[in-house]
Amino acid sequence: METSISYLAQDPIFDIEKPFDTDVPVEHIPGARASNHKNDERTVTVYPITDASEWDLEKHGFCLIKAKTGLKAEDALTRKREVQKDYWNEIEAILHEHFPQYSRIECYDCTVRKRDPDFPANIRIYTKVEQPARRPHSDCSAKGAHMNLDRAFPGQQSFWEGKDFDILNIWRPLRGPNNDWPLAMCDWTTINPSPDVRINDAIRRDRVDENAILHYNEDHKWYFMKDQTVEDLIVFRNADSLGKRAQGFHCSVLNPEASGELRESVEVRCVAFR
């Protein structure tokens, strides 16, 4: 499908400033900026995945798994705190079954999204549920991976310091088949990390995270799962502790052919120790 992706523009400001953005209001602070980003909107072709078995986490940064889970859409949207632990247990068991290279897997975050009818024409900072992310990114850098664990498992630094681990995401729609603003994945083999990837400070109300954002490169190849069902799990690596493995850069894209319900989705982040 033909669509557009909102890349991070190459800007001379990054010669003197690190990229940053925030999801909290700053208008009341004199001289404050919510971000120093500029958009580089590009028309791209996003290809449908025709054979799920072709995609390998270690090579491409993402893969696809067919698996049943018990999380219901209404529970995720209205009772996330009560039901997320059971869902985490299901996800950990699924990952252990498919990825024997991991000795221990611990889920630590769960994000539920429901697209607002006004998205993206009117993107509000505060909605009841998080909105799709249009900027192609990886949720954390190698440094950000350690920052994630510091926050998720306070006081346990001695357990993971010096260990080899990955930060993984497991993403699926809450209702399907879904074609509305699907998740698009960039094939890692088409990314040139040195010029394409920019480390970014993600400023939150209570912390600063570090993630990674993509600049445009005409070599990038993007893919999505057409008619994705609740049993179609996209697994991708955000980062690893050594900063050496394939990453799953991703974003949501407008599908001009979509019809049906607005997208609802759930994603889990976990640490997977080798």
Automatic annotation (TrEMBL):
Stored InterPro entries: AsaB-like
One GO MF term: methyltransferase activity
Source superkingdom: Eukaryota
A single BP term in Gene Ontology: methylation
Similarity remark: Belongs to the asaB hydroxylase/desaturase family.
Organism: Lentithecium fluviatile CBS 122367
Keywords recorded for this protein, A-Z: Methyltransferase, Oxidoreductase, Transferase
PANTHER family named among the record's database cross-references: BLL6449 PROTEIN, OXIDOREDUCTASE AN1597
Name of this chain's protein: Putative CmcJ-like methyltransferase
